[in-house]
What we know:
Elements: E1 3-5, E2 11-12, E3 15-18, H1 20-29, E4 37-42, E5 46-55, E6 59-67, E7 76-82, H2 86-98, E8 103-107, H3 121-138, E9 146-147, H4 153-159, E10 165-169, H5 171-175, H6 182-187, E11 194-199, H7 207-215, E12 219-221, H8 233-246
Parallel strand pairs: 1-4, 7-8, 7-11, 8-9, 10-11, 10-12
Antiparallel strand pairs: 2-3, 3-6, 4-5, 5-6
Amino acid sequence: MQRYFVQESHWQENKVTITEEDAHHIKKVMRMTEGDSLIAVHPEGKAYKVSIESVGESIICVVREEITDNKELPQQVTVVQAIGKADKVEWVIQKATELGVSRIIPFQATRSVAKWDHKKQDKKVARFEKIAKEAAEQSERVKVPHVHRVLSLQEVIEETKDYDFRVFAYENEVRNGANRKLSEHIKEMTPGTEVCVIIGPEGGFSPEEADELYQSGFTSVRLGKRILRMETAPLYFLSALSYEWEE
């Protein structure tokens, strides 16, 4: 059943009003009409089955029942992704949302190939938020991940200082044959914990960045025995976490 996230101001008692792009999608793409059902999601993370009462410039729906099936990851996971080409970041946002990420923070690494124009950041973030919303609807989630503006590594460290687990995917852990497997780390990430994983750029972390992360309390981890692309690494991590705690 089609799912739409609806802002809080559009909920009144047992009525929900859907506007703008979502209203257009309902009318023109899905071709729904009075009496058809869909799922509306409240910002508090609750989903409801609703039926369309009227179709006009806005879609007026009546709430029928709450849907209690929870499909969110047990942990609150923040993926800090080194920026690369725009399509790679968009891919990570879409797929990480499908896999249950809670928050995505792009960061400017020393070896990042791409350099984003700060004047265009608002436009980029708006597009990323739209991608996250659509992916959350498609994967039947009740929360849309928050997409942050681009931060420096120092800002990331400060932003995540109170997290329960802070790790970074370090290629040297693979090359040096680190003994501790990712699964051992993940078993410690019990439900309800806040987890931050930092993914480096195409050229990897610089030695200075790795040292700064170690000194700030981050733990380096290896993601399997192979060197992964920057857009593959966060998906590997989220999939491993999901397998351990959801399957």
